[in-house]
């Protein structure tokens, strides 16, 4: 099983507008309900996997569902990444003194892309 690197609250980057990470609007804020709905669907897929194992379903059928769940998570991650680029990176690029912040946001996005490619 692949593990996901998640930053701790001590090392989490500040929000796009320089506020605390939990205080400001993020790139995904406008689509929050749609994202939550999508995550609930993915959660249901994973629970379905548990049920399939519990019911001794054929291995290949379980692997097919694992693949579908993995693709759903990857699609969700790409959507979040796109929103981050459109919102946070674009805001840093538009800022008058955004050179250093822009470099930091691009490095942050590059690291996220690298993590996605390792999975």
From TrEMBL:
PANTHER family: COPPER-SENSING TRANSCRIPTIONAL REPRESSOR RICR (PTHR33677:SF3), TRANSCRIPTIONAL REPRESSOR FRMR-RELATED (PTHR33677). InterPro entries: Metal_Tscrpt_repr, Metal_Tscrpt_repr_sf. It comes from the Bacteria. Belongs to the CsoR family. This is Metal-sensitive transcriptional regulator. Pfam families: Trns_repr_metal. Keywords: Copper.
């Amino acid at each position: 099983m692949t593990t996901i690197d998640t930053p701790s609250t001590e090392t989490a980057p500040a929000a796009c507008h320089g506020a605390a990470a939990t205080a400001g609007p993020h790139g995904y804020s406008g689509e929050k309900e749609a994202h939550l709905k999508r995550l609930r669907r993915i959660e249901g897929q994973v629970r379905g996997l548990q049920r399939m194992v519990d019911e001794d379903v054929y291995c290949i059928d379980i692997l097919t569902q694992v693949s579908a769940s993995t693709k759903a998570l990857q699609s969700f991650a790409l959507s979040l990444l796109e929103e981050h680029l459109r919102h946070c990176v674009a805001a840093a690029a538009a800022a008058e003194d955004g050179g250093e912040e822009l470099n930091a946001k691009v490095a942050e996005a590059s690291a996220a892309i690298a993590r996605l490619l390792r999975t």
